[in-house]
Amino acid sequence: MPYTQDIVEELNVLVRYNLTTTQEGIKVHKTASPETIAATHRLFEKGLISLDDGGYLTNLGLETAKQAQAVLDILRPI
């Protein structure tokens, strides 16, 4: 199954988190794109982040964000 646009938007939110610390979250403001706001809401519903508008990664979110970042690192142009 290929990535849907919704999944791509969710991955783009996840890779914005600083993975070197669990003490730093993100805040998605009302001025963000509707796609980013919707992706953030879906990640909250899936239990990957702590708040509907960002917050911190949950344990599952941290593992998912690490894997998303690893895929991005591998596929990034050299």
How much of the sequence is in beta strands?
A: 5-15%
Low-pLDDT residue intervals, each spanning 5 or more residues: none
* Discrete helix count: 3
Work out the number of β strands: 3
Structural class: mainly alpha
Give the SSE order as H and E letters: HEHEEH
Helix content: 40-55%
Query: How is the main sheet built?
Result: 3 strands, antiparallel
Report on the architecture of this protein.
This protein has 78 residues and is mainly alpha-helical. A three-stranded antiparallel sheet has the order 1-3-2. The longest helix is centred in the last third of the chain and has 17 residues. It starts with a helix and ends with a helix. The model has no long low-confidence stretch (mean pLDDT 96).
Helix-strand blueprint:
Elements: H1 5-14, E1 26-27, H2 34-45, E2 49-51, E3 54-57, H3 59-75
Antiparallel strand pairs: 1-3, 2-3
Helix pairs in contact: 1-2
Keywords:
78 residues, mainly alpha, three-stranded antiparallel β-sheet, 50% helix
Question: What is this structure, in a nutshell?
Answer:
By secondary structure, the chain is mainly α.
